C-alpha cells in the first residue's frame, strides 16, 4: 500500500496542492481526474519524485520513503510520461536497457532478457531493433511502459495516457493497464478523460482547481 499524507505544493506563492492525502492499495488502479490546470501533473510529479513537495510524507508498506531518490535499487515509483520521452537516437531495446544497466548496474544480459520478455508480452517482439521514429504512437507508449517496468517499480504512474493517441487506441491502452493489474501491478493514472477513468479505475479521485 502506498500512502500519501498531507502533501502541499506551491508555485510562485500560489497553492497548487493543498493538504492532499490518499491511500493506494496494492494491485489497484487509481484514477486522478480533474480539469486542466487543477494540478494533476504537479501531483503526479510529486509522486514520481520529479517535483519536491513543500511538505508531506510518502509511505510504502508503512515505511517512509523519498520519491526523489531515483538511484535506489528499490525505487518504488515508475512513470510513463505524457509524451513518452523515448531517446530518439536509441533502439527500442536500448531505450529499455539503458537505465537498469546505468542506474541500477544490472547485467546487460539479464536486463536484455527481461526487456525481451516484456516486449513480447506487450506485443512488441518484432520492434526491438527499431528506432522510436519508426513506431506508431501506441507502440511508442508501450515501449515507454516496458521501459518503466524494466526498473521493477512497485507502482506505475501515467500522465494522460490517452492524450497523445488516436481515439481508437484508448481501448488498447486500457487493456494494457488492466492486463498489468492482473499480473499484480499497482497503478496511478492521471487523466482528464472521465470515460477512460471509469473504464479502468477501482477508485477515482477528483482534483479541482483551487481558488487562487
Ligand atoms: N514548474 C512550474 N512552475 C510554476 N507553475 C507551475 C509549474 N508547473 C505547474 N505550474 C502551475 O500549476 C498549475 C497546475 O498545473 P498542472 O499540474 O500542470 O495541472 P494539470 O495537469 O491538472 O493540467 C497551473 O496553474 C500551472 O501553471
Ligand atoms: Mg497535466
Would you mind describing this structure in some detail?
The chain is globular and about 45 Å long. The model has no long low-confidence stretch (mean pLDDT 93). The longest helix has 14 residues, at 108-121. The strands form two sheets. The chain has a five-stranded parallel sheet with strand order 6-7-8-3-9, with helices on both faces. Strands 2-1-4-5 form a four-stranded antiparallel sheet, with helices on one face. It is of the alpha/beta class. It folds into two domains: 1-76 and 156-212, 3-Layer(aba) Sandwich (Rossmann fold), CATH 3.40.50.300; 86-152, no CATH class. The chain is built from six helices and nine strands, in the order E-E-E-H-E-E-E-H-H-H-E-H-E-H-E. It has helices spanning 40-47, 92-102, 108-121, 137-149, 170-182, 194-200, and strands at residues 2-11, 14-24, 29-33, 55-60, 63-64, 77-80, 155-159, 186-191, 203-206. Adenosine-5'-diphosphate (ADP) is lined by residues 11-12, 16, 34, 36-42. Residues 40-41, 160 line the site of magnesium ion.
Tell how many strands the DSSP assignment holds: 9
Determine the structural class based on helices, strands and strand pairing: alpha/beta
Level-2 CATH architecture of the largest domain: 3-Layer(aba) Sandwich
CATH class of the largest domain: Alpha Beta
User: What does the radius of gyration come to?
Assistant: 17 Å
